[in-house]
Design a protein that fits this description.
The complex is a heterodimer of chains A (466) and B (415).
Chain A (H helix, E strand, L loop, with lengths): L37 E2 L9 E2 L6 H6 L15 H9 L6 E2 L16 H13 L12 H12 L4 H4 L3 E7 H16 L5 E5 L3 H10 L3 E5 L1 E2 L4 E2 L1 H10 L5 E5 L12 H14 L2 E6 L9 H4 L1 H8 L4 E6 L11 E7 L3 H19 L4 H12 L1 H32 L8 H4 L4 E3 L4 H9 L3 E2 L5 E3 L8 H14 L2
Parallel strand pairs in A: 3-14, 5-6, 5-9, 9-10, 10-11
Antiparallel strand pairs in A: 1-2, 4-12, 7-8, 11-12, 13-15
Chain B lengths: L31 H9 L6 E2 L16 H10 L14 H12 L4 H4 L3 E7 H16 L4 E6 L3 H9 L3 E6 L1 E2 L4 E2 L1 H9 L6 E5 L12 H14 L2 E6 L9 H4 L1 H8 L5 E5 L11 E7 L3 H19 L5 H11 L1 H31 L8 H4 L4 E3 L4 H11 L1 E2 L5 E3 L8 H12 L1
Parallel strand pairs in B: 1-12, 3-4, 3-7, 7-8, 8-9
Antiparallel strand pairs in B: 2-10, 5-6, 9-10, 11-13
The chains are: A alpha/beta (466), B alpha/beta (415).
């Protein structure tokens, strides 16, 4: 008799088999079907029972529906911090997740954030639901930060902005919209890219493929490969671009290269989807870091832009960001916004208020805004400083003539070292340096004091491990 | 395709044109759209009995004292680092203790997978996605009526949804025979959505005996109980009493799942704090299930927001604050019970010939008035009274100041 209680079903270990490629478990096939199955359990207390029309009462209650759910592999990025915490070695260094650290390697809450929270406490604001699209003051501020307050797109209302759950949630809303309204359209992502991009697109049901990006020979941009792959994609694809401070490589196109990329997108009728997670954090300047997005907007592109305030305002935990869609008319913007809301409602109903209020308070007060700019410059400056020191340490220790200048050319929190997986493993196993297995190090977790040690670890791993 | 004075076109000939043609303006959300309309109304007599957010007797939103104290305690103390994907561990522990009981055997045996979620919505969605991923051919059974967003959630999760009878219009009470009949027809391995207490939108809850009968049916027919508990403490004023349905099912050995929300009972609406828990065979399985729930959360929002979870954790882990919370939740529940009595007695005083005892028999924030859509529309147009078109009145929006006006208006449209 057909039963939907297919208890010998083998569970999928991960939504994205690409994300789980680092796992030691092979991705298992999901077994779907209707037929008589033998009810077997791994628990010795319950003998095998042949499944008939009605299952024995004791078994129905005592055997979980989810008994065959296997352990998911640890997240390749967030799992690194967990492993770091478990390490007891004194020399350990966490260059895993991209969260800013001070020179003392402590987490940093921006002073303007403390001030904004204090203001909020004193005002004693209520905790009512936000509208589905989020806090209006935040949405206005975030669009203006992105494009500039006097941008014609904003003046003409040609932008749909919906508060999202940081960058991840904003990307997910955009992806869900693409799945629903551009069914079959493919999104091209850079190779490599932030690992979660693939999960987001997969879970949203959006097909994706990759365009070449990182050139291991130069430890720089494979511009030729990138252009070729974007040209080869079917007309009207969506191209996911990092607005600044590419994650994980730290390699950004030059302004001329951005123009050329825009030319190809125009020629092919592609739509850009910008992921802007580091505005202000990369160079220290909010405007400079938004230049790629603004260039594309001024060239008349319709596009998606996901923003995050995790890094530039240090609001990692409060999940604050936005999905923006730039459109030809205000009417279209209203329609698109209404449909984004329809996607958000069955996900979380309305977004959390705390982070949104902090951003709105900081941006809305000119004194706080100036202080924020200064703190961003400080953070970006510290990272540039450790890049410089690391570069000098590598140069002084490695006399082979290898060009380590990519450390200085790359921008933002991350550096793609070019280390392979086994070399990265060596970094962790031998040197207690925690990083992701794609060779990415987070410079935000490095301080001047540890640059020498890190240089030693990199040189050892690069030269002595195959 | 737009023909307005757009900037230089990005859609050359031959390429995909008109990206946005298929995008129509979405209909207003039936619940949240009511508040939007209310806010736009300038009439001084307007009354909002639409969305389920508590108001005090002055019609003002309330932030609980225990919450304000908690916020002072945590101010400036924490860093802003990412929470784990499954949220604040201490929050999850306290949440499930609240739901299942401090000394529940399943907790002592570590058999519960629990993750912090974006309030009740996020908990339901995470579970719906989990159900789709691991039991892709299973069905969800949803009561009629239910909170409208339940259908959106399971539909977007692409789970096949069926319904079961719940509300009986003729009695304005529970259609228990219909419920049992419909659930008996559900195939083994089906999942059933149950409101743990204070059913939304009807306010009609099964009795303890009815819950027990349902529990037996679920056992014998292999049905999975999924509890949406959005009003624990808020319904009767007693958190233990409001969780009795869950405790009954637990005693019968069910391995259930529960979505908890702290939006109403702690007044943390905008902070989006909730918890999804799944009872498993054993502690290893609980670890597995939790890891898979995290796997679903990661591409949705990576990790949940911190602030609200910290507030709940502070309140529930401090004995004094917890005691204060119990008192404040009872005040809210009692005020609503008082307003139910006032509305009913006002309608009776006006000489309404219709039965109104359901107003006080129903429980929680909502009263399923039995008003038709036309009557609701008249209430809005003629009296500037806002409620959802299914006749659901949010009793939290009723005050001593507006209860007479409300009763009058209801009488006018129903006599």
């Amino acid at each position: 008799m057909a039963t939907s209680m297919a208890l010998n079903e083998i569970a999928v270990s991960s939504a994205s088999s690409v994300a789980s490629k680092m796992s030691s478990k092979p991705a298992m096939k999901k077994f779907v079907g209707f037929h008589t199955v033998a009810l077997s359990t791994k628990n010795a207390s319950f003998p095998s029972v042949k499944c008939a029309a009605k299952v024995n009462m004791a078994v129905a209650v005592d055997v979980s529906r989810f008994e065959n759910v296997s352990m998911a592999p640890p997240d390749p990025i967030l799992g690194v911090s967990e492993a770091f915490k478990a390490d007891t070695d004194a020399t350990k260094l966490n260059l895993g997740v991209g969260a800013y650290r001070t020179e003392d390697l402590q987490p940093y809450v921006l002073k303007v954030v403390n001030k904004a929270e204090q203001l909020m406490l004193e005002r004693g604001e209520n905790k009512e639901y936000l509208p589905i699209e989020g806090l209006a003051a935040f949405n206005k501020a975030t669009a203006e930060l992105l494009l500039g307050a006097d941008n014609p797109v904003i003046k003409n209302g040609q932008i749909a902005t919906v508060q999202g759950l940081s960058g991840t949630g904003s990307l997910r809303l955009g992806a869900a919209f693409i799945a629903r309204y551009f069914p079959g359209v493919k999104v091209l992502i850079s190779s490599p890219t932030w690992g979660n991009h693939k999960n987001i697109l997969s879970d949203a049901g959006v097909p994706w493929s990759e365009y070449r990006y990182f050139d291991p020979q130069t430890v720089g941009l494979d511009f030729k490969g990138m252009i070729e792959d974007i040209k080869a994609a079917p007309n009207g694809s969506v191209i996911l671009l990092h607005g600044c401070a590419h994650n994980p490589t730290g390699i950004d196109p030059t302004p001329e290269q951005w123009e050329a990329i825009a030319d190809v997108l125009e020629e092919k009728g592609h739509m850009p989807f910008f992921d802007v997670a580091y505005q202000g954090f990369a160079s220290g300047s909010l405007d400079d870091d938004a230049s790629s997005v603004r260039k594309f907007a001024s060239r008349g592109f319709e596009m998606f832009v996901a923003q995050s305030y995790s890094k530039n305002l240090g609001l990692y935990a409060e999940r604050i960001g936005a999905i923006n869609v730039i459109l030809p008319t205000a009417d279209l913007a209203a329609r698109v916004k209404s449909q984004l809301k329809r996607l958000a409602r069955p996900m979380y109903s309305n977004p959390p208020v705390h982070g949104a209020r902090i951003v709105a308070n900081v941006v809305g007060d000119s004194v706080l805004f100036d202080e924020w700019r200064a703190e961003m410059q400080m953070m970006a400056g510290r990272i540039k400083g450790v890049r410089q020191k690391l570069y000098e340490a590598l140069l002084s220790k490695d006399k082979s003539g290898k060009d380590w200048s990519f450390i200085l050319k790359q921008i933002g929190m991350f550096s793609f070292t070019g280390l392979t997986k086994s070399q990265s493993d060596n970094m962790t196993d031998k040197w207690h340096v925690y990083m992701t297995k794609d060779g990415r190090i987070s410079l935000a977790g490095l301080n001047l004091a540890k640059c020498d040690y890190l240089a030693d670890a990199i040189i050892d791993s690069y030269y002595n491990v195959k | 395709m737009s023909t307005a004075a757009a900037p230089a076109s990005s859609v050359p000939a031959g390429a995909r044109s008109g990206w946005w043609e298929a995008v129509q303006p979405a209909a207003r959300d039936p619940i949240l759209g009511v508040t939007e309309a209310f806010l736009a109304d300038s009439d001084p007599k307007k009354v909002n009995v639409g969305v389920g957010a508590y108001r005090n007797d002055e019609g003002k939103p309330v932030v609980l004292e225990c919450v304000r104290k908690a916020e002072q305690i945590i101010a400036g103390k924490q860093n802003m680092e990412y929470l784990p994907m499954g949220g604040l561990v201490k929050f999850n522990d306290l949440s499930v203790k609240l739901a299942y009981g401090d000394t529940a055997p399943v907790l002592e045996e570590k058999r519960v997978a629990a993750v912090q979620t974006l309030s009740g919505t996020g908990a339901c969605r995470l579970f719906a996605d989990f159900q789709k991923r691991f039991k892709p051919d299973s069905r969800i059974y949803i009561p009629v009526p239910t909170w409208a967003n339940h259908h959106n959630i399971w539909r977007d999760a692409r789970v096949e949804a069926h319904t079961f009878r719940y509300y009986k219009p003729s009695t304005r009470g529970l259609d228990f025979e219909g419920l049992m009949e419909d659930l008996k027809k559900a195939p083994e391995g089906s999942f059933v959505l149950l409101h743990a207490c204070a059913h939304n939108p009807t306010g009609v809850d099964p009795t303890a005996d009815q819950w027990k009968e349902m529990s037996q049916l679920f056992k014998s027919n292999g049905l999975f109980p999924f509890f949406d508990m959005a009003y624990q403490g808020f319904a009767s004023g007693d958190t233990v009493r409001d969780a009795q349905a869950i405790r009954i099912f637990m005693e019968d050995g069910h391995q259930l799942a529960c979505a908890q929300s702290f939006a109403k009972n702690m007044g943390l609406y905008g902070q989006r704090v909730g918890c999804l828990s799944v009872v498993c065979d054993n502690s290893q399985q609980a670890v597995n299930v939790k890891s898979q729930l995290q796997q679903i959360a990661r591409p949705m929002y990576s990790n949940p927001p911190l602030h609200g979870a910290q507030i709940v954790t502070t309140v529930l882990s401090d004995p004094e604050l917890k005691e204060q919370w119990y008192k404040e939740v009872k005040v809210m529940a009692d005020r609503i019970i008082g307003m139910r009595e006032a509305l009913k007695s006002n309608l009776e005083k006006l000489g309404s010939s219709l039965p109104w005892k359901h107003i006080t028999e129903q429980i929680g924030m909502f009263c399923y008035s039995g008003l038709t859509e036309d009557q609701v529309d008249r209430l809005t147009k003629e009296f500037h009274i806002y409620m959802t078109r299914n006749g659901r009145i949010s009793m939290a929006g009723v005050t001593t100041g507006n209860v007479e006006y409300l009763a009058n208006a209801i009488h006018e449209v129903t006599k």
